[in-house]
Structures are given as structure tokens and as C-alpha cells.
Amino acid sequence: MRVFVTLQPPQPTKQDNSTLTMISSLSQRVIRGFIRLQLVLAILLFLPAGSFRFWEAWLYWGLFGSSVLFITRYFLKVDPEFVERRMQIGPGAEPSKTQQVLQLLSGALACTLFLAAGFDHRLQGSDLPAPVVLVADGLLHGNHFPRLPCQSLCRRNRPGRSEPTGRFERTLCDRSPPCSVPSW
Q1: Which of 40, 76, 91, 153 is the most buried (most CB within 10 A)?
Q2: Is the bond leading into 129 cis (omega within 30 degrees of zero)?
Q3: Residue 168, SS3?
Q4: In angstroms, rounded to a whole number, what is the distance separating the alpha carbons of residues 86 and 126?
Q5: Could you count the other beta carbons within 10 Å of the beta carbon of residue 184?
């Protein structure tokens, strides 16, 4: 006697379906934001350089993009609400006038750094040896990944959580509520 069993995946409930829709919508917004960020960064690096023959910029652009993707993917899986909160960035998202001005100035300074790198390449101002460039990019982008434990600690100890997960984590997060994490 043969018995055939057909396995079907469980049908999502309305709550599961709305959660999937929210995550899907959030993922789409994150992808659009990432593409915009990468395009702006490419314009800021390559337009003043006047050429795409700028290997240092390609290296930086690729490392930056991959680290942003890695970190964002991690938090989309672990805490989509965290990513939702972090999508509200820029001077308009800040509550106080002082924070708005500081956000505006820091954004302008960051853009100036990328523009300066492009103009420096165009004018052939500095010629760093390749190992120096590689070490500098490695150190800069290696800084992105140690942030994950800190952000996870702050995420676990965010306001509204019933029990803190430890003294170190509470001390770490008490210094910067509600977990000020640099925007990506």
C-alpha cells in the first residue's frame, strides 16, 4: 500500500501578509535609496575628475557600496524597524534647528571631500603609491563592520524593551539614546 503525502506551505495569515508587504516595500525603498546614493557618489567623484580612468575612485566607490549593502542587508533581516527609522535622514528629519544646521554642514563637507578628490585627480595634485591607497581604503571601510555589534546592542536596548540585556550594553546605549547611528 502506497501513501502519497502532498506538502503545502502554510498559507500566510493577514498579519504575516502585511508584514511581508511592509518588508517588501521597505526593501524597495532601500534599494532606490542605495541606487541614488551610489549615483550621487559617482557624480561627486568622477565628474570633477573629468574621467572614468580613476582607479582610486572606483575602488572607494565599490568598497563603500558593498559595505553599505552588507550592513543594510543585515539590518533588514534583523530589525526592519531600525532600517525604517534610519531611512528618515537629512536636515529635514531632525527635530531641532541646531541639528538641522549641523546635518546640512556635515553633508556639505562630505560632498566637498569627494569633489576635492576628483579635482585632485584631474589636476594631478597628489600621486600616492598604490599600497598607501589600499591601506587607507581598507582602514576606512573596515570601520563600517565593527559598528554592527554597537548598533545591535543599541537596537536590543531601545526604549520600550522590557529588560536590558546587560550592564555594558545599557551603559553603551545610555550615552547616545536613541542610538545615534551614522546614516548610510
Answers
A1: 153
A2: no
A3: helix
A4: 36
A5: 19
For the segment 39-49, what is each residue's pLDDT rounded down to a tens digit? 999 999 999 99
Residues 6-20: tens digit of each pLDDT? 555 555 555 455 555
User: Other CB atoms closer than 10 Å to residue 125's CB: what's the count?
Assistant: 10
Sign of CA dihedral 145, 147, 151, 154: positive
Look up residue 92 and give its three cell numbers: 529635514
For the chain, give every domain's residue range: 22-123, 146-184
Q: How confident is the model at residue 79 (pLDDT cuts 50, 70, 90)?
A: confident
Instruction: Give the burial class of 49: count Cβ atoms within 10 A of its Cβ; 0-12 exposed, 13-18 middle, 19 or more buried.
Output: buried
Cβ neighbours of residue 95 closer than 8 Å, sequence gap 6 or more: none
Alpha helices per DSSP H over the chain: 14-49, 55-78, 80-86, 97-122, 130-142, 147-156, 167-174
